[in-house]
Structure formats: structure tokens, C-alpha cells
Amino acid sequence: MNYFKKILRFAGPYRKYGYLNIFFNILYALFSALSFAALIPMLNVLFDKTKQLTAPPSFEGIGKAKDYFMDYMNYQVTQYSGEDPMKGLVLVVGLVLVLFLLKNIFNYLAMYFITFLRNGVLRDVRNKMYEKIVDLPISYFSEKRKGDVIARITSDVLEIQHSFLSILELIVREPLTILFTIVVMFLISVKLTIFVFVFIPIAGMLISRIGKSLKRKSDRVQKEQGEFLSIVEETLGGLRVIKAFNAESRFFKTFERSTSRFFKFSNTLLNRQNLASPTGEFLGILVIGILLWFGGRMVLVESTLDAASFIAYMGLAYNILTPAKAISKASYGVKKGNAAAERVLEILESENPIKDADGALEKMDFSTAIEMANVGFKYEDDYVLKNFNLKVEKGKTVALVGQSGSGKSTVANLVTRFYDVNKGEILIDGTNIKNITKKSLRGLMGLVTQDSILFNDSVKQNISLGKEDATMEEIVAAAKVANAHDFIMELPHGYDTNIGDGGNKLSGGQKQRLSIARAVLKNPPIMVLDEATSALDTESERLVQDALEKMMKNRTSIVIAHRLSTIQNADTIVVMSKGEIVEQGTHDELMKSQKGYKRLVEMQSFTS
After folding, report:
1. DSSP 502-522
2. Total count of domains within the chain
3. What are the residues whose beta carbons fall under 8 Å from the beta carbon of 40, sequence distance 6 or more?
4. Could you tell me the pTM of the whole model?
């Protein structure tokens, strides 16, 4: 229940629908009991047991409410039927029909209003989860499988929605139906009702024992669902490699093992859940059977109860079974939902360590320099950067080179504040970036990565990602700077062409030029290029390099380079090894020093 208290806060904006649901559920429960009580006068008319009353009865207190109701109905039947008993039958049958009609109208209205609450909560929880997913740092998702996150935002949230309805029925509708029914049962026969209540707690105890382990079993099912969704997500992402290495059977076996576990866990869970309904039904019928024996004795032997009241009483007793079974099912739903809520709240309540400081500065311009002072950073245990010092003056291009694992891309991750430094500080115009809002910091920067990350949308939408109000003229101008305009115009629908999932309808060079066009359109004062040409062939590289040089004019640039031929014109080249700077200077200066940079250049010249 603790998790549901937290989920309940999402129902706040829809409380009016909750109140309307409760109101109509009260009416439903009341008319549910009255509709069975109305069977008594109908049966009396049928069996010719109606007392002939010519004067209306007087109400003598709540203790004799049943007698007053019976006498009042008998008086109405007497007045209405006169000489023809069929008229009396039509009256009481009409009364029963009206009460059942009202009961079902109120049932529909209760369900009608709860629908807005349920779907509203579903929408808001999903929106909040998505907002949290895009807010959480990149490091959070390096530890989580994407498929598991997808399972949480889809099936787990849906499970909460179903359970949410169940718990509202558990709290309001079904208990009230039972309460009103019991009140009417007491009015008919106190002795018989007390006898019934001896058996109800026994039945309840037996049913509750079945649901003890349900939350744990439900948790296993939901985790396994996340597992096989992760396998599907990885398969779709790496289908080309899977096929190239003939690894289809290996991935299928992994997926089959996961679905087999899901099959096993689901069977255990559903069989345990399904046991509740027949158990409840049998225990209910057992109570009804004992009731028939005990009540029949009161009618036939003791004559303390009339037959019509006893038949109506049996209907009322059976009327308790339906809500009792619903409560039993709802309690299982709550246990299942509790496991789902736990998984959803794990994401919603995750703290984002990279957040804006109190009173963070909205920085809209860049005027002097970016400086990394004594920076130390580690992803896990070992430091990737150690005592790292670098200053990038405004308008200058600084290139970072070095072997894989030397910490080049880490610098890009820290400057853009995808991660926070463990030691030291990063300053922009003398202000620590932790004291600048994330939005305004990233607004000052354009990023082009080695992997061209594009989205399943049109060319136009992909280019305008960082500037939603961009005009068509601005988009075309950015594409021309990026050497992308010509190939875009050759596409079937030009700038309105959908480029497919991840841009897979385009070549590597085309995708990279769209990424550059996106950065050009944003027009930031600082550019961060993370191995932007390393995955390209020579011809594509020349086009992309030309686009990059156009883009970097009059801008401050941090270039992480794998191909050293692309950064020879940089103002400063920084050679890194194992998280430290080993030398820095211009291309000519470093070639003369004959240290690490010259060796790297010669190795690339030799291999090319």
C-alpha cells in the first residue's frame, strides 16, 4: 500500500471524477440492496400472501422499518389492484424493474466517471516518467537495460491503472454494497444474519492465504518482461551484425530462454490468481447451502420467517458473493499493482545528481574562454582524467588527440555537463559550469558526434531539432554550409523525406552532414566535435571536413580527432595519454618536438 499512496498523488487533478464515482457507487450499492428487498412484495402477490390494508400504515421507528415497508407496499397493492390481482402484480414487477434499472444506471455513471480518473492517472504517470527519463543523466542508462525501461513505462504503468480501479472498488463500491445488503438482511432476520456471519470470516481467511506470495510472483513476471523486451531492442539495433556473424540462432536461444521463464512465472502467477475465484465461489455456495438448511428450518419448522422474505433473503445473501469475489480479485490486483508501482517509482524517485544549483545563472553569451582547472574524473573506480588543465580561448580551435582510452571523449562529456567532475572545476568566462543552468550551458554549445544520431522523421525536422522556429530559408542555408543541400534535393521528397529509423535510408557521410547542418542551424558560439569524421570513407570525409571547416569559422571549437589529417590547422593540438596531457602546441611545433604526436602522425601515414 505504501507505493499506492505515492501513486495516489497523481489522482489529485481528477479528484472531482473520484467524488462523482463515489457518489454514484453509494447509490448503486443502495439500489442493489433495495432491488432484492423489492422481491418480497412481488412474491407475496404471486403467492397470494398480501395483507389487505385499506389505511396507510404509520412509521413506528427504525426498529420496525421492515414491517412499515411491507405494510406500505401491501397498502399500495390493495389500493391499486382492487378486484384484479394482476394489477397488483404489474405494480410490484414495475417497482422491481425500476429499482434494477436505477441500480444499473448508477453503475454505468460510476464507471463513466472513474474512466477519466484512470486514464488521466495513466497519462500523467507516463508523462512524468518520460520527463524523468530525458532528465536523468546519461550515466543512469548505462546501468539500465532499455527494454526494462520500456516495460516500466508501458506494461507496468498499465498494471497500475488496472489496480487503481480495483482499489477504488475495494474502498467504496463493494464494501458499501455488502454493508447495505447486510442492513436489509438484518431487517429481514437478525437470527439468520448472525448465523451467516459465523462463516464469512472463515471464508475470508482461506482466500487471503492464497494471495500472500502474489506480489513477489508478479515482480518476477514484470522483471522478465523487461528482460525479453531488452533482447528485442538489442536485436533490432544490431540486426546487421547478427546476420553478418550468423548469430540468429544464438540470439533466438537467449530470447527463447527468457520467454520460457516468462511462461513459467506467468503460469504460476495466473494459476495462483485464478484459484481465488473458484475458491471464493465454492465457499460462498457452501455458506448459501448452510443458509438454505438453517433458513428453511425457520420457515418450515419454526415458522419464524415467511417464505417470500426467505427467498428475497437468499437473493441478498447471493448479492454479497459478487462484491466479496470482486474484493478478493481487487486485493490480488493491488498486490500485482504494488510490484508494478515499485518499479515505476524506482525511476520517478531516482535522484538526478546533475542538477541546477540554487540561483544558477542563465548564461546567454560567451566572451572570453573555457577553462578546465585540475580536473579529475572517474566513471567507476579508476580515474580517466587526472589533474587535467586546459584553456580554450574564444575563437580558437583546440584539438585533442591520443590513443583510444586516453580520455578525449570524456572531455567532451564534461564540458557539455553530461557528467560532473569529481575533482577540480570547469569554467566558462570565469564561472563554474555547475553555477550555470544546464539549459543555457548547452544552449551555448553545438555537438557533432562520431555516431550520427538522427530520428525517424523528415530531413527538415532533424535539421531544425535545436531551433524549432527555424524558417525554411534558415534550414536550407544550414544544409548548404554542411554540404548537404545537393543530396537532400535528390531525395524523393526533398526536405520532407522521411529518413527512417536512425537515418538508415542515408549513407554514413549523408547522416554526418545532416548532424553538422543541425549544429550549424543552432548557431552556437562553442562547437564540440567528437571524432566527427572517423567513421567515413575518404570522399565523404572530404565533404564533411569541408563542412566542418566552414562551420568552425569564427567559433570556439573543441575537436576530438582520430584522423590527424583533419586537425592540422588547429590553433592548439593537445596530445593525451592515460588521462593526462603529454604535449601541446601547433602541428608544426609538435612535429619538430619528435615526441608522441609525430609518432601518431607517422603511424597513420603508414597505415593509410
Report:
1. GGTTS-HHHHHHHHHHHHHHH
2. 2
3. 70, 73, 188, 308, 309, 312
4. 0.73
Contact 465, 518 (CB under 8 A): yes
Characterise 594 by phi-psi region: left (phi > 0), alpha (psi -120 to 50), beta (else): left
* Cβ contact 163:329 at 8 Å: no
Condensed to tens digits (0 to 9), the pLDDT of residues 77-123 reads: 666 665 666 766 677 778 788 888 999 999 899 989 988 888 888 88
The beta strand positions in 140-246, using DSSP E, are: none
Beta bridge partners, 391, equal 371
Tell me how crowded residue 250 is: count the other CB atoms within 10 A of its CB.
Answer: 11
DSSP 12: G
Helix (H) or strand (E) holding 328: helix 307-348
Q: Residue type for 504, please?
A: N
Strand-pair category, 431-432 with 423-428: antiparallel
Which amino acid is residue 287, in one-letter code? V
Residue 558 CB-density burial (10 A; 0-12 exposed, 13-18 middle, 19+ buried): buried
Instruction: Tell whether 456 and 338 lie within a shared domain.
Output: no
- Of 505, 523, 541, which one is at a domain's C-terminal end? 523
The answer to whether 58 touches 207, Cβ cutoff 8 Å, is no
* CB 17, CB 116: distance < 8 Å: yes
Question: How many other C-beta atoms lie within 10 A of the C-beta of residue 564?
Answer: 19
Of 302, 332, 348, at which residue does a domain stop? 348
Task: Output phi, psi for 388, to 5 deg.
Answer: -90, 125
Q: Containing domain of residue 312, as a range? A: 2-348
- Kindly report, residue by residue over 203-262, the tens digit of the pLDDT: 656 655 655 555 566 667 777 877 777 788 777 767 766 777 677 888 888 888 888 888
Residue 506 in domain = yes
Distance (Å, whole) CA 410 – CA 97: 75
Q: Do 462 and 313 share a structural domain?
A: no
What letter would DSSP give residue 454? Answer: -
Instruction: Describe the crossing of helices 15-37 and 85-135 by its angle, rounded to 10 degrees.
Output: 160
What is the CATH number for 245?
Answer: 1.20.1560.10
Residue 583 corresponds to which cell in the numbers above?
604535449
